[in-house]
Specification:
It is built from five helices and five strands; from the N terminus they run αααββββααβ. By secondary structure, the protein is of the alpha+beta class. It is globular, with a radius of gyration of 21 Å.
């Protein structure tokens, strides 16, 4: 009788521990996605992006620099983007800011950008520090292709909508 009671208690404890772990990992991600540090970063990033995207001199200069880099060395896999601008092969662009969780563990991966189409985008795709993932990829042909490849979602440029998870995608 005592063994059965001990086994039942151990089984219940194990099940409760498993349920607690699953709940905390889901809740933990939600807390990280909506942390104060991440919200503060988003607020600063959107102001900076809006300023850069509206500065026609900066934009023209940055695009010219990227075009020259591509012409100079087509084998340079990072020639199609700078610290704040991604130039797509069809001439479309996106002014962006990105933060990798490896740079600041308080901030879960986040990418925010404003495209040449005037729309704001966000993603939780892991671009890594310094957009390392883009250095290993061929340039995207268009803004639509970039959005698809890197799980970008549209938002209004102000709200906390951009703190939501886009990557990895939900599995069916």
């Amino acid at each position: 009788m005592r063994k059965k009671l001990l086994l039942a208690v151990a089984t219940v404890a194990f099940l409760l521990g498993g349920i607690g772990f699953l709940a905390s990992s889901t809740t933990g991600l939600s807390i990280r996605l909506h942390s104060k540090a991440r919200k503060d970063w988003k607020n600063n990033a959107t102001v900076e992006i809006a300023h850069r995207a509206s500065d026609t001199n900066w934009l023209a200069s940055e695009m010219e620099m990227l075009r020259k880099q591509v012409i100079r060395d087509r084998s340079d896999s990072s020639a199609w983007f700078s610290d704040h601008l991604i130039l797509l092969t069809n001439g479309e662009w996106i002014v962006f800011a990105s933060k990798c969780g490896k740079e600041d563990r308080r901030i879960h991966d986040i990418f925010i950008g404003r495209g040449s189409d005037g729309c704001w985008y966000y993603s939780t795709f892991h671009f890594c520090i310094g957009m390392l993932d883009l250095r290993m990829e061929e340039p995207s042909a268009s803004l639509a292709e970039f959005r698809e490849n890197y799980f970008l979602q549209e938002f209004d440029g102000r709200s906390d909508e951009c703190l939501k998870k886009t990557w990895p995608p939900k599995r069916n």
